[in-house]
Specification:
This protein is 43% helix and 18% strand. With 409 residues, the chain is of the alpha/beta class. It has three domains: 210 residues, Rossmann fold (3-Layer(aba) Sandwich); 97 residues, Rossmann fold (3-Layer(aba) Sandwich), CATH 3.40.50; 76 residues, ACT domain (Alpha-Beta Plaits, 2-Layer Sandwich), CATH 3.30.70. Strand 7, helix 10 and strand 8 form a beta-alpha-beta unit. The protein is globular. One of its GO terms (molecular function) is pyridoxal phosphate binding.
């Protein structure tokens, strides 16, 4: 993904972030910070969660969008603003524009989740669905800007946006003055860059760790090359940080001020989302859970107190269902097993009896009798089971084998 940043390259200073904080007073919430006993035990140091998932519009994006739009000249406001987004940025621009009395047009992919489309409209934006992927949506938004004179509001590659996101860093220092490590997800880099400017200016010894999804990690190769590098076909469930190329402005700041960038896999993201829901009672989208995912492996190289930034909570219910099931599977609490049995009356009941004795909860059963791969007296059964962890999964598999079943998968 590429964006035009002509005319926007300049440094972001602490004064910019402090000015943004004054501008956002009464607009953006000072979000809560909650302790996590479970993560603290894993890391071996106090861990606190900065709950930007509870921000207005459900993410930190309102901060940067409001500061950017508020800084427009009167004639620019009169022309309106335009943005391209599949979710959080769309809602941030929509609400910021409404609060400032500016007309906003937001282009979204045709496949964007319906709750996000509805929320963006409810916040006051004119929503136009265009393209199947964000790059196509972005091109339409930029064409609209050129044709109408509307100001394109970039999601991360502008100093005003970065200054607005940096107010999260100021709040962290106010709420946890003794913080030693901040862990934050990175997509284009606007949030991490803003936090880094604010925190490093006031407490340069605080360590800042960025987190990317393995399938969409553009920062490691970019940092190695010393310039933003695009990666092909970024893929991750964490769409909030699925960005194929770092922004020019945030990259320069991240390169200078962020101490380390780590990557996490899809299993870790799923487990992190599940942990936030079960232990912290917080609904967090996969991108927002990425800092928690990075902490699941323990506290190597991390000094406490630690603040993990939960950047957003706008998760599509359909995706949430899939991710929760994936997270349960990653923790050994959900097991899908396929096996063959003799096709005779009572055979399925006998199988379910074995599973009952093994204390596995059956969620779903698929029974196939007609298939070229099966013998005349064979049937194939696929079971989805709720289990109690990896050890219990192994016990269930062994119980099936001991009962004489051929476990295929």
């Amino acid at each position: 993904m590429s964006y035009s940043t002509a005319g926007s390259l300049r440094s972001v200073t602490l004064d910019d972030v402090l000015g943004a904080q004054k501008m956002l007073s009464g607009i953006a919430r000072v979000t809560a910070m909650e302790g996590s006993r479970h993560l603290s035990q894993l890391v071996g140091a106090p861990v606190l969660l900065k709950c930007e998932n509870l921000q207005r519009t459900g993410s930190f994006k309102l901060r940067g969008a409001y500061v950017r739009i508020a800084g427009l000249l009167p004639e620019e406001r009169a022309a309106g603003v335009v943005a391209a987004s599949a979710g959080n940025h769309a809602q941030g621009v929509a609400l910021a524009s409404s609060l400032l009395g500016v007309h906003s047009t937001v282009f979204m992919p045709k496949g964007a989740p319906l709750p996000k489309i509805s929320a963006t409209r409810d916040y006051g934006a004119e929503v136009r669905l265009h393209g199947q992927v964000v790059d196509e949506t972005l091109a339409a938004a930029q064409e609209h800007a050129e044709r109408t004179g509307a100001v394109f509001i970039h999601p991360f590659d502008h100093p005003d946006v970065i200054a607005g996101q940096g107010t999260v860093g100021l709040e962290i220092l106010e709420q946890c003055p003794q913080v030693r490590t901040i862990v934050v997800g990175i997509g284009g880099g606007g949030l991490a860059a803003g936090i880094a400017v604010a925190v490093k200016s006031l407490k340069p010894d605080v360590r800042i760790i960025g987190v990317q999804a393995e399938g969409s990690a553009a920062y490691p190769p970019s940092l190695a090359a010393g310039r933003p590098v695009a990666i092909e076909n970024p893929a991750t469930m964490a769409d909030g940080i699925k960005v194929g190329r770092p922004g020019e402005v945030p990259f320069a700041i991240v390169e200078e001020l962020v101490d380390e960038v780590r990557t996490v896999g899809e299993d870790q993201l799923s487990a992190a989302l599940l942990l936030c829901l079960e232990r912290a009672k917080l609904v967090v989208e996969p991108a927002g859970a990425s800092p928690v995912a990075a902490l699941l492996g323990g506290g190597e190289g991390i000094e406490g107190p630690v603040v993990a930034v939960l950047s957003g909570g706008n998760v599509d219910p359909v995706l949430l269902q899939r991710v929760l099931r994936h997270g349960m599977a990653a923790q050994g609490r959900y097991l899908a097993v396929r096996l063959r049995l003799t096709d005779r009356p009572g055979a399925l009941a006998t199988l379910l009896g074995v599973l009952s004795v093994a204390d596995a909860n059956v969620l779903d059963v698929s029974h196939v009798r007609t298939d070229p791969r099966l013998g005349l007296t064979e049937a194939e059964v696929e079971l989805h089971l709720e289990t109690k962890g990896p050890a219990h999964c192994a016990e269930v598999g062994q119980a099936l084998r001991d009962a004489g079943y051929t476990v295929i998968d």
